[in-house]
Design a protein that fits this description.
Keywords: DNA-binding, Transcription, Transcription regulation. The protein is of the alpha+beta class. Helix content is 57%, strand content 14%.
Length: 103
Amino acid sequence: MNKLAIPSQLDTIILAETFRLLGDPTRLRILFFCLDEPRSVGDIAASLDLSQSLVSHHLRLLRGARLVRGNRQAKQIFYELADRHVSDMLVDMAHHVCEDSDE
């Protein structure tokens, strides 16, 4: 495993804000729903039983943190996870919380 240098104070603040954003269950549900393929706001809202305005609000925050990106297709924007780092982190943490604890 590569040893990562200790992040700068600014990077630490940005990282803490990213984790704060990930601490919201609705945002996590949106991220997991977009894990396998790009999704429209309408698809996300309908599938997760949320209002479109709430989904749009959360996606704006997630885009600002560079956790998702949107791709316009005609009149719709389809959202997907920003990169492999985000998807790997989500999958790894989901596996972590689901592990049996033998301790």
